[in-house]
Protein: Carboxypeptidase-like regulatory domain-containing protein
Organism: Hymenobacter fodinae
Amino acid sequence: MPLAPIGVMSGLGYSFHLLNYQAVLYSTAQPSSVTSFRRWLLPVVFLLLGVLLAPAAQAQVQLKGIVIDKDTKERLPFASVAVQGTGNGTATNMEGEFTLKVAKLPVVLLASELGHVRDTLRITSPTQVIEIALGSASIVLPEVKVGSYPFQLVDRAFRNMQRNYRRKFYGKAFYRQTTRIDNEPTELQEVVWNVKSNNARIEGTAIAQGRYAGKQAITNFSNFSLYTKSYGLFDPSADTTKSLALLSPNVVKNYELELKGIVAGADTTKGGIAEINFNTRPELTKYKSEGTIWIDIDTYRVVRYHMTTPNFTGGTNNPDQKFRDTKLDIEMSFQNTEGEVAPLEYMKTNLTANLVSGKDVTPLNVSSFTFFYDTNTTPTSIPYARVSLQDRDLTAIRSIKYDPEFWANNPVVRRTPVEDEVIAAFEKKGAFGTMVKPAPTRPAR
């Protein structure tokens, strides 16, 4: 690949290029024109190189902070924090904390969260303690309360999703899964995928890094990521005449809807975001679900979706074990962007159940959180794989080499204090190291 010059020593017969942040010096003059200057020229050249390349060698500035509610002072999880006017952004963790790298200071951070008014904060120093307080957005009901209005919004959101389904997004996703049996952590799995997605679901993944730790337990979940990879708000291949999805032509037939209100944002010239509660109709006996969907009433874009259902279809390989009293929660949130289409920001999946084995009944919980980042619309040559019932997470993790440096101080790998305790306990026992096969030893010569 040709090198792009970043500087030329005019008239002195040298040019230099930046290649992977290394200076490469080339002679552009005839040998006779260089001879008389060689002894004093090279020190000058390298001095200038040091000055000109200093900004390129500087590390990015890492900002850390929290986002809180201005009135209650409570920390806000999953709030968006971005450098205003750029695509550089992140989201807060469960504790309302965020980490964001920027090229230089000063910058203006834009913070937003559903149910709160957007706000900005100018950052001038990396040592400055960043605390962004967001005021609550007002919630109003339409002046004319029409019973069909929430159904119109859901139908238009469905049409919008159907129309824009082919628009793709590419990037990465961090997936963390924790299993607790009888309230004790038994499994921890962390994976980074290269991911291809659209406005409704994940379309395909390719593992980039992963690690797994577990201890002996009565059961384990080797493919729980199936629910994250396969769940979507819309499926173009589904029979729409029989679809039980909320976003389908059958919403009036299958669901009861209630408009709770419209959240007004900072931009008062726009309509806001409708909060709609839903539940399946009593006469629908084969499938039950309830939850909330948030829809932008100007663009009909789904902003967030949360659903709870007792219809969990998983099972165990042990014929003597059965799941009872199951409850599956799935939440999807989309990035805060303008227009009709937005990529995924995060997904949460949570399963609670009782595991019955003979007369023994053991409570269990499996939870996962997936955070999407570095998202763009540029296609890649990565071979993304569609989800399959034959997928096994541990098999995929074992297929790649474990890189401990990747996980150390990685700002994307955000954890709550509880998760830190779980991970520290596993790391202390060397659990993650068991995933790495020792290198073959060579006989001494």
